[in-house]
Amino acid sequence: ILDINMDADLIDGKEAMTRFLQMLANEPTLANVPIMVDSSKFEIIEAGLKCLQGKGIVNSISLKEGIEPFLEQARLIRRYGAAVVVMAFTAKDLIPGVPEGQAVTADDKVKISEFAYKLLTEQVGFDPSDIIFDTNILTIGTGMEEHNNYAVEFFNAVRELKRRFPMAKTSGGVSNVSFSFRGNDTVREAINAVFLYHAIKAGLDMGIVNPNQLQVYEEIPKDLLEHVEDMVLNRRADATDRLLKFADDLKASRTSDA
Predict the structure, then answer these.
(1) Are strands 83-90 and 169-171 parallel, antiparallel or unpaired?
(2) Is residue 229 scored above 90 in pLDDT?
(3) How far is CA 84 from the centre of its chain?
(4) CA atoms of 247 and 64, how far apart (whole Å)
């Protein structure tokens, strides 16, 4: 799937999205590639949908502005014949017991996704196979204890959503998980690979990831793999500190070898 995003301060997003997709339609090698129209502004998403030749995917909508805006956008998306990515965000006091904003725990991720699923299928008429849940891949290894279980919460949410809604899909921005290790490519690539490996085992259908920031799971050195999995799976309280030290030692050894 080709994800296209034209959100930038210095360009007209609607015009850029329209022009790019019209150019893309004239490329025979790309005309058959599924398109994901990606924007934080719905007007840009709709501009993109107007240009698609086949079935597209919208990335994304959420409940953060409330039910009515969500339904309005969902109805337009269905009218254009597209599938939709639904982010696990919610407005204040919309779902009992679920805090406003971005869902963190697996329980909240599932509750928001289930609420959105019912709206989409019962009020808008979406086919379940056209619904893609993105339950927020959050950054781990930040040094803050409350972030240590973020990856596990995502795995648990995906596993439960696949059990409840087997026809729906799941997705996520994989590179987010390793953001705290930006600048250390070896470790960051290993974190992305380990996360993706366990996410797929939990039922993840698709992910957004820079292929240049991804190692092959089976090819990760065993000592690095152990340290990364300790952190990703939250197997020990000092996992982040141990990985940081290991990463520093690894960088030092490579510098001395050079």
Answers:
(1) unpaired
(2) yes
(3) 13
(4) 38
Half-sphere exposure of 29 (CA within 13 A, CB side): 0
The whole-angstrom separation of Cα 165 and Cα 185 is: 36
User: For 89-143, where are the alpha helices, taking DSSP H only?
Assistant: 106-118
Instruction: Look at residue 86 and give its three-state secondary structure.
Output: strand
Interval 200-224: pLDDT, tens: 999 999 999 888 888 999 999 999 9
CA 49 from centre of chain: 21
Between CA 113 and CA 132 the distance in angstroms is 10
Q: What are the tokens at 225?
A: 């793999």
Contact 134, 89 (CB under 8 A): no
DSSP label of 35: E
Give me the mean pLDDT over the 135-156 stretch.
97
Tens-place pLDDT, residues 76-120: 999 999 999 999 999 999 999 999 999 999 999 999 999 999 999
Task: Please list, in sequence order, all residues whose beta carbon lies within 8 angstroms of the beta carbon of residue 73, skipping any fewer than 6 positions away.
Answer: 42, 61
Residue 242 has pLDDT above 60, yes or no: yes
Residue 252: Cβ within 10 Å count: 10
Contacts of 164 by beta carbon, 8 Å cutoff, 6+ apart: 110, 114
Q: Which residues of 12-50 are buried (b: 16+ CB within 10 A; e: fewer)?
A: ebbebbbeebeebeeeeeeeeeebbbbbeebebbbbbbe
87 is written with which tokens?
């982010």
Structure token digits, residue 94:
């919309």
What is the amino acid identity at position 191? I
Q: What is the mean pLDDT of residues 123-140?
A: 98
Residue 246 class from Cβ within 10 Å (0-12 exposed, 13-18 middle, 19+ buried)? middle
